[in-house]
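Appendix B, Record 12. Input sequence as logged:
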Amino acid sequence: MVQETRLSEDVIHCAFEVSNQLGVGFLESVYENALCIELAKQGVGFQQQKSLQVLYKEQVVGHFVTDLIVENKLLVELKTVSAIAMNHRTQVMNYLKATGIQVGLLLNFGTPKLGVQRIVYQYDESQII
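Logged structural output:
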């Protein structure tokens, strides 16, 4: 988890740089592309717009596309909304569950101050009834 914390800090630093430079009002894809430039500049490995499958009993039941996966340890979802809603957090949680990645960042470029939420997925079989 220490490695994920360091990666989170690196991504957040890059996201603040993007937010400070671009401000508010662009499409999500603009911020995503700018964030990729910053991550590459810092030497952080990532995959952009990675297509993944959702499995149910070892059968594909759906597909989704993540904004960024950083060094195969951190999932990053970008938004450009006036406020983060529960369904945005749920989306990240579901992506974490489907990928097996434990930590995600939800970054919102839709407000004057960059919104950052760190989401940790911990599957606990003891809670299943």
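Helices lie at 2-22, 28-41, 86-99.
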